[in-house]
Amino acid sequence: MRYRNSNMRKCLATKTIARCAALFLFCLLPLKGICQTGESTVNTLVEMGFENVGWTEDGKERVYVLQNSAYRLNGVGIGKAVDIIQKMGLPDKKPCRVIVLDNNVPQISLYYKPIIGDSVPEASRRDWNVSYDLGGTWKEARKIGRKNSSLFKVDVVVYPEVSLKNLIITQIYQVLFNLSPAVEVSFWKGMKLTAQVVVPVYNDGYGRLADKVHPGFLTLQQTVRLPYNMWITGTLGAFNASRYGGDLKVFHVLKADERFSFEGRIGLTAAYKWDGFEFYYGTKMRLTWSLGTNFYWSQYNVQVSLKGEQYLLGEKGVRFDLIRHFRYCSIGFYAMKAQGAKSNGGFRFQVALPPYKYKRKGYIPRVTPSKNMGIAYNAGNERYYYKGFRANASENIMSNNSFNPYFIKSELLNF
After folding, report:
1. Is residue 26 within a helix (H) or strand (E), and if so which, with residue range?
2. What is the superkingdom listed in this entry's lineage (predicted)?
């Protein structure tokens, strides 16, 4: 009996040691999203296709920096990145910040602050505050090394373009349809080079020159972010609407209430035209400008804008815009009144184009359709006044709102 009893004690002791060892090893395993290094999170984000990814940490917070280059919709892409960071990259018992870049220029940040004292800390998308404020750690975060740089990587973006006009009583619409591929590349932070060729596919009533393959946007653009939520974008080159010259845009978001923003724009351009690849240009420069304010109604993702403007013929006027933003489209109405011109208005919309996820393969040029396409309807059929231009092929009401923090927050909650 003693022998059997001794053997039982030995067996119990072995089981106890095994259980203690298992418990000890389990305690070494990190909780979901907690206490893990940022390096593995960065590597996972790079594998997903995010660019300019890095991280740093001090005694106050952990900071991730990234650029969404894998998902067509910024709200979706940022949400995917947040999910990964929540799963494997949150620090232990201190805040975490995610700074989102566009062409290496910081746009917004997402900030998560854990509730100290929770027995099982678990972050969700709802817990992240989205803002234009980058926090005090950006000065250090901007110096960190980043993986999967976007510099010198070429995108060939194919822009579908549709123009309609109703000037003949016996015909509903005259149509012009172009496919316009553009080479887009950045050589340094905030810089973007665009070289586009317009390829006519169908032309009914838009003239002989529109039937020829010819260059489109040829621009060099530079964007910088200044303190106090201010961005400046300067562009030189050949724009749409047969204008070439320079354009300068300033955008400022009110720090006290980020629903309010102000923007100003000034352009100095002259006329040009392409006859195939023969370039004809004028020398008379015309000044255009715009100055206005915006309000964003976050509950419904509605943007209201009021601007004073000067157009290409020198007429000064006022423009009002009301735009509703959705995940896959933006729809807006506008009204205009200028000196010596009849009131005009209409609507415009932009629709996101598939594929909604795409990934680069190293430095091999990536060919994709444009992120979205749209049409503006001129209800008053105004053909002479209210003329302006766009300085970049990708500039539209949908892309201009893609980094709005209220819109990004709504996408985090609803996707």
Report:
1. helix 2-28
2. Bacteria
Residue 44 is classified by DSSP as: H
Nearest to 36 by CA among 110, 112, 96: 96
Instruction: Please say whether the beta carbons of 155 and 194 come within 8 A.
Output: no
pLDDT for residue 261 is more than 90? yes
Intervals of CATH 3.30.300 along the chain: 38-141
137-154 residue pLDDT tens: 898 899 999 999 999 999
Complete edge-to-edge strand list for the sheet that includes strand 51-57: 51-57, 62-67, 96-102, 105-112, 129-131
Phi/psi of residue 26, nearest 5 degrees: -65, -40
- Rounded CA-CA distance 221/184 in Å is 11
Q: Are 132 and 119 in contact (CB under 8 A)?
A: no
Length of the chain: 415
Q: Token digits for 146? A: 């980043």
What's the rounded Cα separation, in Å, for the pair 255 and 134?
A: 12
User: Which of 226, 243, 277 is CA-nearest to residue 391?
Assistant: 243
Q: How far apart are CA 407 and CA 298, in angstroms?
A: 7
Q: What is the pLDDT of residue 27?
A: 44
User: Is the separation of the CB atoms in 376 and 164 below 8 Å?
Assistant: no
3-state helix, strand, coil in the chain (%, to 5): 20, 45, 35
| 3-state SS assignment for residue 257 | coil
Contact 49, 70 (CB under 8 A): yes
CATH number corresponding to 38-141:
3.30.300
pLDDT score of 167: 83
